Amino acid sequence: MKVFKVPKSEDGFPQLIDSIRWAVKEAWSIHSSLLIGLGLVTLVRGLFPAAFALVIRGLINTVVGVENNQSEALTLLLPWLVFGLGLTVLEAVSSMFYRFKMQRFVDDVDLSINLKILEHAARLEVGFFEDSRYQDIIHRAQDNTANHFSRFIADTLTFVTQFVQIVSLAVVLVAIEPLVAVLLIPLALVHLRFQWGLSKRHYLEEYMRATKRRWTSYFVSLLTTRRSVPEVKLLDLAPLLINRFRSLLTEFRDQNQRRYLSSFKGGSIIAVLTTVAFYALLGNVLRHFLAGTLTIGDVAVFGTVGLRLRGALETAVLSITSALGQALYISNLREFLSIEAQIKPASGRKPSLNKGKIEFREVSFTYPGGEKPVLSELSFHIIPGETVALVGKNGAGKTTLVKLISRFYDPDVGCIFYDGIDLRELSLDYLHSQISFVFQGVVPYEATASENIAYGDWNRLLKDRDQIECVARYAGVSKLIERMPQGYDTPLGRRFGEYDLSEGQWQRIAIARAFARDASLLILDEPTSNLDAIAEYELFNRFRKLAEGRTTILISHRFSTVRMADRIIVIDKGRIVESGTHQELLENKGHYATLYGTQQKQMGLLSDV
Asked: Which of 92, 340, 544, 582 would staple 563 via disulfide (CB 3.0–4.6 Å)?
């Protein structure tokens, strides 16, 4: 993975320039014609202040020169008035045109950048999102990146406008008082360096806050999410969580206030110096006027334009340092986009016959950043159409095993074969199309009941209500759905709708979603963990029919569930320690029998209670 350096010193400046170049290239690719229009109107807008200064100078000098001849004054003033009117109208229209173009461009940037983030995220493997080391990178990439990108373009254009103004105004002023360039420009450069230091300091503070920002979001979610609120209230955790939230935000506030104070002190010093320099220059201009070498129009223009130049310098410095600061945030996006999926695209091979045969050969695997292998030297096979249960204590490696089959990760050592083809050579799209997976943590999709089932194979089912209802009957959830307020059109979930399901009902919908896919391999990770005894019994009665013709891998801690499997594989500490039918394993009196006996004793104690 390519990791971008944080520009902490001059060594990071090339990286900053690279990010600026990348941002301009992206902006051009998003909408080149809009960017050209914005550039042209930006250049034109920059010339207005100097043009107005010339109009004012012409008007004043004309009035002074012909003050005793009214008719002649009107004749001479008319061209200046028309010129001024034209400039005013053009400036107003150009401002509206700029705003119109910029609004359109911001919307296009928002669409393009957010799509780029989501599309890149979709290309990354599951392991990336499960690795805590990358969570800060994800957070920074999501942190209003499109807005930073838009502000970079807007600030850059603002700087261009101000720069054109500065050059054109400076030409006017230097013609009146050459010392302008000697006094004001160096002060502007000092101000630029000072503001850039503040912008870089702000970025670095925000960069280092990523983890703490995620903690604040987590505390907010605990205090406001309906799934966590009941327990938080029962345990009276709110004061503790709020105190931790307050502590982090107080730290951020104090850091910000120290930066604000630095900005105030430095900005005030520079403002005083530039003001004193301007009035010193104005005094010198007045001296020349009294000596007769300058006109009253020159004095008026210098006073007006000098103040405008000072404001333009201030705005130019703030806009360029802001643009550079936004470029630092854009480097966060580039850091995320530079991450390459560790699961390399396969050659696209497909088996000649789709059977669902699985084979592990000496497979070992350790999670990225982990120290100990989760799976060690696993070798076994599952014949097509066979139902195999994986049994073991929590952390034994059962879920990791099925993640490897789904190619969410690649094994460190060994090979996994699907219908005789190494998963690393198999088309990933094809592999996933052949797997139906009920995950241990059921995803409650905020969608209608119909859509929740159709998501199992949305390309085929989303608009086929008859087939969706057929799947619901097949999976045994049709009566559940028909009792809902709007039947299959009932929006599920409380985030956008008003009808929610219990954990067990969500799990039954998830099972139906898995069976909606015409897949040769069915993986059920704790499929009955949230089901009551009756629902579990009904599922058992349907299971053989549901799994018919499919290779099935079943993970469960309930022996009432696993005993229905054709074969049970017992895993302990990442290794296979036993394999056989339920009865065979009980007769072996090994690890499986111990686990089974422990659960039976627990059930006996519960029944006594």
From this structure: 582
- CB-based contact 385:551 (threshold 8 Å): yes
Q: Which two tokens stand for residue 452?
A: 């929740």
Distance CA 376, CA 498 (A): 47
In this predicted structure, what is the pLDDT of residue 451? 94
Q: Which amino acid is present at 39?
A: G
Q: Which residues pair with 437 in a beta bridge?
A: 523
3-class DSSP state for residue 569? strand
- What Cα–Cα distance (Å) separates residue 480 from each residue in 25, 142, 391, 464, 544? 54, 38, 31, 20, 21
Q: Name the residue with tokens 């900053």.
A: 16
Q: Is residue 353 domain-shared with residue 485, that is, in the same domain?
A: no
Residues 57 and 157 in one domain: yes
Task: Check if the beta carbon of residue 369 is closer than 8 Å to that of residue 534.
Answer: no
Stretches where the chain sits below pLDDT 70 are: 1-14, 64-74, 345-348, 533, 537, 540-541, 603-609
How many CA atoms lie less than 13 Å away from 346 in the CB half-sphere?
17
* 294 three-state secondary structure: coil
Instruction: Write down the pLDDT at residue 404.
Output: 93
Tell me the three state secondary structure of residue 260. Answer: helix
d(CA 366, CA 343): 15
Same structural domain, 505 and 608: no
Q: Half-sphere exposure (CA, 13 Å, Cβ side) for 283?
A: 6
Q: Between β-strands 575-580 and 567-572, what pairing exists: parallel, antiparallel or unpaired?
A: antiparallel
Q: What span, in angstroms and rounded, lies between the C-alpha atoms of 206 and 133?
A: 18
Q: For residue 568, tell me if it sits in a domain.
A: yes
* Residue 518 exposure: Cα atoms within 13 Å on the Cβ side: 6
Distance (Å, whole) CA 313 – CA 306: 11
Q: Say whether both 307 and 367 belong to one domain.
A: no
pLDDT digits 0-9 by tens, 522-565 = 998 887 777 776 777 677 667 777 777 889 998 888 887 788 88
Distances (CA, A) of 130 to 138, 209, 367, 417: 12, 21, 10, 24
End-to-end CA distance of the chain: 56
Give tens-digit pLDDT for 414-463: 999 999 899 988 888 888 889 988 887 788 899 999 999 999 999 899 88
Selection from 460, 466, 507, 506 nearest residue 488 by Cα: 466
Tokens (6 digits) for 558? 């309930």
Indicate whether 333 and 462 sit together in one domain: no
Cβ neighbours of residue 522 closer than 8 Å, sequence gap 6 or more: 435, 436, 514, 515, 547, 550, 551, 552, 553
Contact 430, 350 (CB under 8 A): yes
Tokens of 142: 């999501």
**pLDDT, tens digit, for every residue of 318-361?**
888 888 888 888 888 888 888 887 777 666 677 777 788 999 99
| pLDDT for the residue 416 | 94
Range of the domain at 400: 344-434+520-609
User: Could you give the CA distance from residue 70 to residue 62 in angstroms, rounded to a whole number?
Assistant: 11
CATH number, position 193: 1.20.1560.10
One-letter amino acid of 293: T
Q: How far apart are CA 332 and CA 150, in angstroms?
A: 15
Which of 513, 493, 486, 509 is CA-nearest to residue 446?
493
Rounded to 5 degrees, φ, ψ at 55 are: -65, -45
